[in-house]
Amino acid sequence: MTDDKNRVVIFDTTLRDGEQSPGATMTHAEKLEIAELLDDMGVDIIEAGFPIASEGDFRAVSEIAQRSRNAVICGLARAQLPDIDRCWEAVRNAAKPRIHTFIGTSPLHRAIPNLSQDEMAERIEQTVSHARNLCDNVQWSPMDATRTEWDYLCRVIEIAIKAGATTINIPDTVGYTAPRESADLIRRLIETVPGADEVVFATHCHNDLGMATANSLAAVEAGARQIECTINGLGERAGNTALEEVVMAMKVRNDIMPFTTGIDTKKIMHISRRVATVSGFPVQFNKAIVGKNAFAHESGIHQDGMLKNAETFEIMRPEDVGLAGTSLPLGKHSGRAALRAKLKELGVDVGDNQLKDIFVRFKDLADRKKEVFDDDILALVTATTEGDDALQLVNLKVVCGTGGPAEATLEMEINGEDMSAVSEGDGPVDATFKAIRMLHPNKARLQLYQVNAVTEGTDAQATVSVRLEEDGMIATGQSADTDTVVASAKAYIHALNRLIVRRGKTGKDVKEISYRDVT
Ligand code: KIV
Ligand code: ZN
Questions:
Q1: Nearest ligand to the C-alpha of residue 148?
Q2: What architecture is the 391-503 domain classified under in CATH?
Q3: How would DSSP label each residue in 375-423?
């Protein structure tokens, strides 16, 4: 990659550890899109998936590998020969492939396959050598390293290096370590393990105690030169180290952390929003770097200070992470050229046809709102990237009040056929969802229903996320509208359309499920 001893390799695992978080499943097309954005942003290594886990994972890793340009494409494999072979099959067509193999080395993890220390050591030797015979770029991870006995950890790392591993990753799998301990562990391993100076040490932290960023940076200060991270900190349980946080910390505090990365930080905001949309995990408002409020100043004193000198309350410029510093307010008098300029400023590249479509929706929205904000525009872009769906909302009227149940009158187009239903419910959203289920009976279970106002004011656009689960399949739908109930209906229908695609069936097939089956 580079000989610069202060260059830190950024290993992104949004598509593997991130996608592994419950409910964050992405479609094939979404994975390809995110991989392309990561590559464009300058991520050094993309962990694209776990090829043996499913046919879908295998296909995604293979296609990402085939399309790869600059980044190394890595696949994950357990310490088993068929896993490693499958992983190699998926990544082998990448310009720069990597196999990442791992095994849990702590006492708790050793107990799962019921291997003694010696048996596990032998397995490590065998699997790492096998991987290295296939690929000259091999990463090995002792899972739960931070709870593994020191002597045993040194022993197995030495074995992995001798067997041909080129990167040794030290995972804090359960987010248990703390910054000083994280640094000590990396420093001592580099000083102690024979051959350590011939490999790259990596840090892989989880955020269970909210210390993943601090632990990763401490590891780098102690000699690690690869950080494993995800966009928005997506990942198992409380997530992984957030890419945007470690990268911006090293950039803004380069005076005390003199490390560099290959990341074009101006692309951070766009990819953060795309990952939030496709994963269905919205970014918390006050999230460092990419939260909606990260560069917002509300109080009079702050606004006054900002007007005099932005540095009074800002340690980095919004432009550095891809936010438009100044915004040209868009409204109903704006034309197509202004919309195109705004999309460009937001880092969104659209063709003429998509622009036409977004423009029609934009005009419609501008008629209903005083001012159309950047987030409104991005929500419109998301809405226009959808294809021809089996289920479409035609019309929705809801009557509700304090005196009784809400009543929804719904009209939908199902595979080109107009259908309508009236349903009562406990509130407008419940009545609407029931009416949708009357027209499109299904067994999908509602796992998540979340509403966010993406802009201020009572005329704000609401972004609604709906996550459905059916027979182990998970689909997330999102939509935005100034009317929360309409956004909810569209998000629910969006998720149902995704389930239909996943089942490989049409809406008509699904109608055969009896309404009585619906829970
Ligand atoms: O957290 C972890 O230990 C992992 C390994 C597979 C590297 O994700
Ligand atoms: Zn992990």
A1: 1
A2: 2-Layer Sandwich (3.30)
A3: HHHHHHHHHHT----SEEEEEEEEE--SSS-EEEEEEEEETTEEEEEEE
